[in-house]
Specification:
By secondary structure, the protein is α/β, with parallel strands linked by helices. It has three domains: 2-98, NAD(P)-binding Rossmann-like Domain (Rossmann fold, 3-Layer(aba) Sandwich); 110-318, UDP-N-acetylmuramoyl-L-alanine:D-glutamate ligase (3-Layer(aba) Sandwich); 329-473, Alpha-Beta Complex (Protein-Tyrosine Phosphatase, Chain A). It has helices at 11-22, 38-44, 84-92, 99-108, 122-135, 212-224, 239-246, 291-306, 311-318, 351-367, 384-387, 395-398, 416-419, 433-443, 461-473, and strands at 2-6, 26-31, 48-51, 64-67, 96-98, 112-117, 141-143, 155-156, 169-173, 178-180, 183-186, 195-198, 231-235, 252-256, 263-266, 271-276, 279-285, 329-334, 341-346, 375-379, 404-408, 427-430, 449-453. The strands form five sheets. Strands 8-7-9-6-12-13-14 form a seven-stranded mixed β-sheet, sandwiched between helices. Strands 18-19-23-20-21-22 form a six-stranded mixed β-sheet, sandwiched between helices. The longest helix has 17 residues, at 351-367.
């Protein structure tokens, strides 16, 4: 089969392309911004990439067009369609489908799917669960919205014909974002999981959901797709998830979190016992920081147990988990002679994620006896929700444990400086990336931890800061 993917350079669609190529399909694709690293990864797989969405791509004559949710029926200011290729597909009645639908029919069918859903922690938990299954010899397939360092790739098919009667396993990051312009259901309703993690739930994606209740309804739809033999693994202390469960659960369920959860952690986030129904079933010592990651670990251990992995074995596997790129990833160290400066990259963009990232780092520093070390937060409100200003009132509280805050405001229609006014002189805003680098560099001191947070490339700020800091301190 020849598939042509519209919007191929997105994380999900790029992963789908890699899976399709591995399965033996001919894969081509297009996007408005074909650039590294995704373009390099796809071309290394032998996938032809085309810049733009021109209708001349019909000449490729694929068997089916797979449409990413970046594609719409929007028009340009001159009245012409923004996605001419999509208009031509519709005009000529050519076959097309969404990414999640194609994945469901051609990859997930016949597998036991373990789907990881929730507002936060999806990528990390999906990577944790995949690594547990891999380390225990189960050779899972996976599709992850990031690159787990243990694997070095974001997607693979895994075992398709396991010995015995068990279905092959596939772990997928189950996004609640909509499927396509012609299918406004959440992506995850296509996956039909046998095991579903509901990690947490709060308001996000203000560009497509009017309120939290609308998102809860999509999660309730997900639960309706799980067979009675399946299981939902749910965070016990989240009110929104309790409202989702109240709309109907049709399979087994188990909970994780604090009392009265089935699965609990006793001890600090880096060194803790794992309890199931008040009985110790494992112990985990690892290099990952933050209470949020402790909860992610509980969710992955509980899910692995549903497919036969003993909690003790899951803990042994997680002890060697290396996290995911752009999750508290150390990008560089500056030697100053009076204490190293560490530059850290993180994907945090929602206020809750920013709070857990900064708070997790503060907790780690305190545990290491470094309670005088400053945290310098450098962040870009880049997600659609943040650009709309729906969460701006939560920003000061999310950054409260940072000593200094620098906000990059390019492209915002709301006043970030006014939103951060409660932080006083600790907060600085600028719409120039070069000025941002100058201000951070001027403020930096020996021993600082500088955390850059964005769900995008952040205009290359990491390398620019490393260069400027190196120049300052040498």
């Amino acid at each position: 089969m020849h598939i042509h993917i519209l919007g191929i350079c997105g994380t999900f669609m790029g992963g789908l392309a890699a899976l399709a190529r591995e399965a033996g399909h001919t894969v081509t694709g297009c996007d408005a911004a074909v650039y590294p690293p995704m373009s390099d990864q796809l071309r290394a797989l032998g996938i032809e990439l085309i810049e733009g969405f021109g209708e001349e791509q019909l000449a490729l004559q694929p068997d089916i067009f797979v449409i990413g949710n970046v594609v719409s029926r929007a028009k340009l200011p001159n009245g012409k369609p923004k996605f001419a290729l999509m208009e031509a597909i519709l005009d000529q009645g050519l076959p097309y489908t969404s990414g999640p639908q194609w994945l469901s029919e051609h990859v997930l069918a016949g597998r036991h799917v373990l789907a990881v859903a929730g507002t936060h922690g999806k990528t990390t938990t999906t990577a944790m669960l995949s690594w547990i299954l891999e380390a225990c010899g189960l050779n899972p397939g996976f599709l992850i919205g990031g690159v787990p360092l243990n694997f070095g790739i974001s997607a693979r098919l895994g075992e398709r014909n396991p010995s015995g009667t068990n279905k092959p396993l596939f772990v997928i990051e189950a996004d609640e974002y909509d499927t396509a312009f012609f299918d406004k259901r959440s992506k995850f309703v296509h996956y039909k999981p046998g095991t579903a993690i509901l990690n947490n739930l709060e308001f996000d994606h203000a560009d497509i959901f009017d309120n939290l209740a609308a998102i809860e309804r999509q999660f309730a739809h997900l639960l309706r797709t799980i067979a009675s033999s399946g299981q939902v693994v749910v965070e016990a202390n989240n009110p929104a998830l309790q409202r989702v469960l109240a709309q109907g659960v049709y399979c087994g369920q188990t909970s994780f979190g604090t009392d009265p959860a089935d699965w609990q952690a006793h001890g600090p986030a880096h060194d803790f016992d794992v309890l199931y129904q008040n009985k110790t079933v494992g112990h985990l010592t690892w290099a990952i920081s933050g209470l949020h990651n402790q909860r992610n670990a509980l969710a992955s251990i509980a899910s692995a147990a549903h497919v036969g992995v003993a909690p003790h074995d899951a803990c042994v596997a997680l002890a060697t988990f290396q996290n995911v790129r752009r999750r508290m990833e150390l990008r560089g160290t500056i030697k100053t002679g009076q204490g190293d400066i560490e530059l850290i990259d993180d994907f945090a963009h929602h206020p809750t994620a920013i709070r857990t990232t900064v708070g997790g780092l503060r907790g780690l520093l305190d545990a290491q006896g470094h309670n005088t070390v400053r945290i310098v937060a450098v962040f870009e409100p880049r997600s659609n929700t943040m650009k709309l200003g729906a969460m701006k009132a939560q920003l000061p509280d999310s950054l409260t444990q940072a000593d200094l805050v620098f906000c990059y405001t390019a492209g915002l229609d709301w006043d970030a400086a006014a939103a951060l006014l409660p932080m006083g002189e600790r907060a600085t805003c600028t719409d120039s990336i070069d000025e941002l680098v100058r201000r951070v560099t001027r403020a930096a001191r020996a021993g600082d931890r500088i955390v850059c947070m964005s769900n995008g490339g952040f205009s290359g700020v990491h390398d620019k800061l490393l260069g400027a800091l190196q120049a300052k301190f040498t």
